[in-house]
Design a protein that fits this description.
31% of the residues lie in helices and 26% in strands. The strands form four sheets. A five-stranded antiparallel sheet has the order 4-12-11-8-5, covered by helices on one side. It is globular and about 50 Å long.
Length: 229
């Protein structure tokens, strides 16, 4: 029993270095650490900005992702091919669902009846439930439209009454095209059910964490065996 308690302590030690839920990915050869959007849901951009400057905050060291980096992130999940709208392509739908699994989601449940629509890429799909999340990003966006605004991503997956993911929303102005002159914008002061795209270059490679966990496990096994001798 003592062995398993010590093993649990090692696991907690290995993975408690960051109290935030993060997503690690590599874009253009650089490994990034992203905060899940649910970590900052309900906080305005101004709220988040204050935390980014606070050395005692769990957000310290992160920054708002640029438009080009968010574009790379979204396209890495969706494989976006330039088609804008509600798409029924299975690879796009699966990718967008993975994004929601990684970054968090809000859910608008249906009423138990499928609604039928034709997607922009020619699929006839039924859906009942809407899964979605949005995120603030882009310092560049303050120069677009009204002052004091951020760009806002829009990730939506539609699910049928049978539980099948049938379609996803992919819009060039919702983050997939950093050159779009008319991106989605949200006030920097609004608090809503979306978070903020916060990112930093990863400084602790995943293999190092694995080695730390493995070495701790080996040490505990050795310690336990010595105690039995």
């Amino acid at each position: 029993m003592r062995f398993w308690k010590k093993l649990l302590a090692v696991i907690i030690l290995c993975f408690s270095a960051s109290s935030n839920a993060v997503v690690i990915n590599t874009l253009n050869g650089v490994t990034y650490e992203w905060l899940e959007l649910t970590e900052t849901m309900g906080m305005s951009r101004l709220d988040v900005q204050q935390e980014l400057w606070n050395e005692n905050s769990s957000l310290f060291g992160y920054e708002f992702a640029s438009r080009s980096l968010v574009q790379e992130l979204l396209r890495s999940y969706s494989g976006w091919d330039g088609v804008t709208g509600i798409l029924g392509d299975s690879s796009v739908v699966a990718g967008m669902n993975r994004f929601l699994d990684d970054f968090g989601r809000n859910i608008t449940p249906g009423d138990g009846y499928d609604r039928w629509i034709t997607t922009s890429d020619g699929y006839r799909i039924g859906y009942d439930t809407i899964n979605y999340i949005g995120g603030l990003y882009g310092d560049e966006c303050s120069n677009l439209g009204s002052y004091g605004r951020s760009c806002l991503t829009n990730v939506v997956v539609y699910t049928s009454i049978s539980g099948e993911n049938t379609a996803a929303t992919v819009t060039s102005w919702g983050g997939w095209d950093s050159e779009n002159p008319n991106p989605l914008l949200a006030s920097n002061e609004i608090r809503s059910d979306f978070g903020s795209h916060l990112v930093r270059i990863s400084t602790v490679p995943i293999p190092a964490v694995v080695w730390l966990f493995g070495s701790g496990l080996i040490a505990l096994v050795g310690f336990t065996k010595r105690k039995k001798i």
